[in-house]
Each structure stands twice: as structure tokens, then as C-alpha cells.
Write a sequence for this structure.
């Protein structure tokens, strides 16, 4: 690499959501601030971010190809528990392709006790601990000389971080240009995120939100007004305030008065320390345009609250909750399973208290297993407190002195039933894909957008399917659709292995579109599924780490499998009825509506209606069916939506929309 190469790519890999609708909400705010601050103070370096489509939807190989085209001398990764393993894998591939490239990594994962981030495989050359703007700027100014003097920067030798002074924090946050205002980050779908302050005064022992910084450093009201005015010109509708606790802003009343001027333009979402809100603050808050707030309730357990510095004033807490409800604000109430000191009774009481005393109809509960995060007091005291946790991110607790693994699994399932909510849904609803309706006829807002491979004998006869196709043209979400006649089993296994090798952290969807099939075909399906299970379910992946002890091993968020079978076949093979690891979708080719033959056996199954007679002759019979209905015929679909426009909450057209990503460099 030439010494005068002054090109840098900053990468903040997104959370791997199972569908695109959620994926597009992910903004790389951290590296946006890094670039905005560095661009302000130096002009020698050409700092780029990955193109948005490639960052959000591209496979690892697509990202690597983009980097190879740009040929940067430095690559920076922002590391979180959800992207650490994928980033390490990508960094290793970069080192193989461009050995001279310098890789620097920072983010919440880089702490003195984060062994998983400090790889011994040579992934990183430098690590940045703590707040990054000043450290990164000094790195650019001094590179490649005198780097040892930079506060917060560690040279990585075999995964060892030598003791050094922590990074310096910016005292005046107004010195950092907002990354949306500078154009570093695009406005997407009228949605924008920004922080009004940094630091958190509460210091909860399980949380790393405040990065150990209890000093509140606020943006000025003038700065915030400039950001709001910019958002107004960009027709932003939803603002998410990234503050650990929004009401910890030192001049909170003045901030609410400022936001009140924009209430007709913005819907505001944030997090609140609700028991610290005074009556005056509550009165001001409801006039700001706040529509939703996350509330860190966590537990009613007295032992864990005392141990973790989680004081709770019940009367004030409930009173303020009621006031927010009266203002029409939707609440997301957090509960954590596995807090040290919490017993099974404490968790059950927390859920029941939330259900009976806090929840209203539109509210949601967010149930989490405790993550023993690097840099937290819980991580430091894990051994003393008898805590065991997974060594891979997201470091989920598996056992404590008061809760066993089995108890936590049981509590998780019980809470879902008690609250009638599905947490961490493994199979996202209404995201099934096929290709019966051409993409140009599909509803443009539908979130499904996948690469699709139809696996059949014809696929293996077509020589145009080369490895470059899998390497360069695949998005991170891949759909494999098996159709009759089914191909050779060994060739199928080779195909699956090829795709997985290029997509070790991809999202996979397998559709067994078998319709009416014979017993040998059913055996092929089961045999192939067992191979997929062995190849994918047990691989190293963030979402698999999340689900490896919480639920059935078949339920995870990066491998989804759907079995499409004829309703006739469904009644022939009772063993194939609704399964967690391959949910059944019925191809309804019968002329009668389901309640004429009894539908108690498939009340949880979505239905793809193939025979329009069954719905045209007796639509009232389908109206009792609560699961999604999909349609082969777009005219029938349009008729059904028109008939039930007020009640349809899901896209009911069965189709595939393929996402195309242009060949572009950063």
C-alpha cells in the first residue's frame, strides 16, 4: 500500500434483523459522529462510510468487494455485542486480501475485561477504548508515527491490551457536528436519531449505557434547535433521542419548552427515568410531541435492586406511569430475567405487577435475559455473585445463585403466555417469500427483499450459476426454495455449504415448496433439514448465542424454514403438523372453506389460497380465521383487502421482491 494513501473506511455493521423493514432503521450514528468530527479538524484524509445499501443488506463478501475496490490504507470498526463476531470474521478476510491495511476497532466492546473483542488472531492492529472522537482524530494526525502517546489507543499484540490512560472526552458536545446535518448520514423514511447529552447519573451495575461516565455533558439548546430546524427542512417525522435517560438533561424544562414549538411536526421517541419526573416536568413532557418512551423497570426484587443500585419509589413510579398514559404516550416497559439476587418468585412478581398495575392496551413489555456486558459491575462481580454466562456475545446469563437455566427458560415461556406477547420472535410474521407474483406487481412497501435460489435439478444443470454469483451478488438474506422434482441430495448439501461459507453470518430462509408429495419426498425433506440443522443451527452466530439456552435449539433468528404443503397432504401426514423448526404453511387447494371440514388442527398456520372458489363462495367462513391469508391471484387479494380494509394489518400478497444493490464504491 502506498505510504501516501490517505483513504479510510469506517464500518458499523448493523444488527442482523430477519426482515428488511426493521433493518432499515439501523443508522451508524457512532461512526457518523467520528467522521463529522474528524472532517472538521483535518482535510488530509478521505474518510468514507460503506454505502448504505451494502452496509445494511450486503453479504460479507459484498462488503469485502466494496473495500477491495476502494483500497483504503485504514479500516475502522465500531464494535457492539451484536456485530463483534461478524466484524472479526470480516477483518480476518480483509487481512488475507490486503495484508498491509491497518485495522482499528473501538466501541462498547473494547474494555479491559472484554476478552472476546481482543482477538489473538490478528484481526485488529489498534484498539480504541472509551469515547472515540478525540482518540480517532489524534490517530489520524499522528499516523503512522508516535501513536504510543495517544490516550485511549492500544496497539494489539496477540490480544493483549497494555495499561494506558483512558481516552479524553469532549467536554463541549457542541464541538461535534451532527452527522445528519453534515450529510454524513442520510435521512431515511423520515426518521432521524440524535443525542441531547452524554453520560448517565444513575450507574446501574448491569448497564454500560453511560460508559462509566456519570458526568452529564449536554448539547446546548442552540445546538439542539439547529438540529431540529434541519430535521424540519428534511421533512423528518420521527425523532429518536438516543439519551440513556432523556430527563437527565440538565435543563430539561427548557428543552421541553423548545420541543413544544415543534410538536406538530415531530413524533418523539426516547427513554425515561420515570420516577425522577416532577409534576411540572410531566406536564411539559406531554406537550413536546412525545409518543413513546422506554421505561427501565427491570424488577420488583428488593435484593437485586439493592445490589445493582436500582432504587424504585413505587408510588411515584405508578403515579407517573398513569400520567403518561393519560397523555396518550405508549410505553415500552423493560423486564430483565437473571438479575443477581432475583428469585423465580421475584421474576413472576415483576411480570404480574407490570401486567396488572402498569400496562395499558397499546403498551409493550420488552423481556430480556441479563447480558453480562464488558465494563459493567455485574461482569466484574460475576464470580462473587455466582453468575455464569455465555462467553460469546451477547454474554447471556445462564445461571445464578438464585436461578437455574431451566428456571429461566420456564420463566421466559411463562411470561409470554401471561402477557400474551411474543418476545424475540424467531419467525417474523408475514415475511414469507416466493415468486408467484412478479416483483413489478408487488406492493413497494413490503419489507421482504431476498436473494432467491430455486433448488431443483435444473439449477445444477445450468452452468451460469458460478461461485461468483454466490460471492458477489448475494445480499445477507438468502432464500432457498426447494421444488419438485427434488435434486440430488449430495449436490444439495454442497450448495448449502457453498452459500454458508460465503455467508457465515447471513440470514437464511428455506422454503420447502412441495405441495402434494410422496413419502420418499417427505423423507428427502427430513434428511435435508437434518443436514441444514447440523450446518447452520450449530454455527457461531449472534442470534444463535441468544437462543441456545432460552428456547428450543431449532428456534433462532438467522435460520427460518417454512414447509408449504397442500391442505390435502396436511391431512395425510399428521406428523408434519405445526412444528417450531419448520412452520407449516397450507396451500389451500380445496374448494371448501376450512370451517366446513374443521380447522382446529391448523389454527396457527398461515394459508396461501390457491383455489379462489373456497373464498369467493363463502368469504364469511374465512373471516373467523385469525392467521394471515395470502393469495396467488392479485385480483382476489385486492378484493379481500377492499372488503376488510379496516382490519387488514399485514401485506396479504404472496410474492418475492428481490433487492438489487448497485455496484458502487464508498
Amino acid at each position: 500500500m502506498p505510504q501516501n494513501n490517505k483513504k479510510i473506511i469506517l464500518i458499523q455493521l448493523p444488527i442482523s434483523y430477519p426482515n428488511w423493514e426493521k433493518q432499515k432503521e439501523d443508522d451508524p450514528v457512532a461512526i457518523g459522529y467520528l467522521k463529522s468530527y474528524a472532517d472538521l479538524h483535518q482535510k488530509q484524509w478521505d474518510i468514507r462510510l460503506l454505502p448504505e445499501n451494502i452496509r445494511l443488506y450486503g453479504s460479507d463478501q459484498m462488503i469485502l468487494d466494496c473495500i477491495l475496490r476502494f483500497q483504503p490504507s485504514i479500516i475502522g470498526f465500531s464494535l457492539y455485542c451484536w456485530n463483534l463476531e461478524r466484524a472479526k470474521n470480516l477483518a480476518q478476510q480483509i487481512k488475507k486480501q490486503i495484508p498491509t491495511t491497518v485495522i482499528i476497532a473501538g466501541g462498547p466492546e473494547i474494555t479491559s475485561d472484554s476478552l472476546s473483542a481482543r482477538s489473538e488472531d490478528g484481526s485488529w492492529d489498534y484498539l480504541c477504548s472509551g469515547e472515540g472522537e478525540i482518540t480517532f482524530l489524534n490517530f489520524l494526525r499522528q499516523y503512522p508515527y508516535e501513536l504510543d502517546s495517544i490516550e485511549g489507543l492500544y496497539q494489539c499484540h496477540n490480544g493483549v491490551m497494555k495499561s494506558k490512560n483512558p481516552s479524553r472526552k469532549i467536554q463541549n458536545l457542541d464541538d461535534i457536528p451532527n452527522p445528519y446535518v453534515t450529510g454524513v448520514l442520510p435521512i431515511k423514511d423520515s426518521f432521524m436519531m440524535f443525542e441531547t447529552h452524554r453520560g448517565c447519573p444513575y450507574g446501574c451495575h448491569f448497564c454500560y449505557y453511560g460508559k462509566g461516565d456519570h458526568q452529564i455533558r449536554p448539547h446546548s439548546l442552540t445546538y439542539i434547535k439547529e438540529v431540529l430546524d434541519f430535521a424540519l427542512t428534511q421533512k423528518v417525522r420521527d425523532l429518536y433521542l438516543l439519551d440513556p435517560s432523556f430527563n437527565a438533561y440538565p435543563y430539561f424544562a427548557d428543552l421541553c419548552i423548545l420541543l413544544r414549538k415543534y410538536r406538530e411536526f415531530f413524533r418523539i421517541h426516547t427513554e425515561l427515568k420515570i420516577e425522577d419526573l416532577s409534576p411540572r416536568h410531566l406536564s411539559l413532557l406531554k406537550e413536546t410531541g412525545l409518543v413513546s418512551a422506554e421505561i427501565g423497570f427491570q424488577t420488583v426484587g428488593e435484593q437485586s435492586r439493592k445490589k445493582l443500585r436500582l432504587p424504585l419509589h413505587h408510588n411515584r413510579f405508578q403515579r407517573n406511569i398513569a400520567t403518561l398514559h393519560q397523555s396518550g404516550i405508549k410505553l415500552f416497559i423493560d423486564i430483565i430475567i437473571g438479575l443477581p439476587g432475583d428469585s423465580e418468585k421475584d421474576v413472576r412478581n415483576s411480570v404480574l405487577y407490570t401486567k396488572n398495575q402498569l400496562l395499558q392496551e397499546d403498551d409493550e413489555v420488552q423481556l430480556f435475559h441479563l447480558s453480562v456486558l464488558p465494563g459493567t459491575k455485574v461482569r466484574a462481580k460475576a464470580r462473587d455473585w455466582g453468575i455464569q454466562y455465555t462467553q460469546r456475545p451477547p454474554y447471556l446469563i445462564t445461571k445464578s445463585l438464585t436461578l437455574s437455566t431451566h428456571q429461566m427458560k420456564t420463566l421466559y415461556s411463562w411470561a409470554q403466555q401471561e402477557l400474551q406477547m411474543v418476545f424475540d420472535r424467531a419467525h417474523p410474521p408475514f415475511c414469507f417469500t416466493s415468486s408467484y407474483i412478479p416483483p413489478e406487481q408487488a406492493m413497494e412497501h413490503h419489507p421482504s427483499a431476498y436473494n432467491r435460489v430455486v433448488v431443483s435439478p435444473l439449477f445444477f444443470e445450468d452452468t451460469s450459476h458460478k461461485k461468483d454469483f454466490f460471492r458477489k451478488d448475494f445480499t445477507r438474506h438468502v432464500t432457498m426454495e426447494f421444488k419438485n422434482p427434488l435434486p440430488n441430495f449430495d449436490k444439495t448439501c454442497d450448495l448449502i455449504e457453498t452459500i454458508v461459507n460465503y455467508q457465515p453470518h447471513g440470514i437464511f430462509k428455506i422454503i420447502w415448496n412441495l405441495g402434494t408429495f410422496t413419502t420418499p419426498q417427505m423423507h428427502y425433506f427430513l434428511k435435508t433439514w437434518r443436514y441444514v440443522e447440523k450446518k447452520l443451527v450449530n454455527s457461531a452466530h449472534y442470534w444463535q448465542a441468544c437462543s441456545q439456552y432460552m428456547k428450543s435449539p431449532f428456534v433462532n433468528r438467522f435460520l427460518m424454514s417454512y414447509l408449504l404443503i397442500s391442505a390435502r397432504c396436511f391431512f395425510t401426514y399428521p406428523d408434519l403438523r405445526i412444528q417450531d423448526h419448520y412452520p407449516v404453511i397450507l396451500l389451500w387447494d380445496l374448494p371448501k372453506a376450512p370451517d366446513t371440514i374443521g380447522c382446529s388442527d391448523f389454527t396457527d398456520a398461515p394459508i396461501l389460497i390457491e383455489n379462489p372458489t373456497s373464498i369467493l363462495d363463502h368469504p364469511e367462513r374465512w373471516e373467523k380465521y385469525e392467521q394471515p391469508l395470502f393469495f396467488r391471484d392479485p385480483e382476489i387479494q385486492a378484493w379481500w383487502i377492499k372488503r376488510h380494509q379496516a382490519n387488514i394489518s399485514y401485506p396479504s400478497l404472496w410474492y418475492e421482491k428481490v433487492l438489487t444493490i448497485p455496484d458502487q464504491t464508498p
The longest strand covers residues 290-298. Confidence is low (pLDDT under 50) at residues 426-450, 648-659. Residues 429 and 628 are 9 Å apart (CA to CA). Residues 519-537 form the longest helix (19 residues).
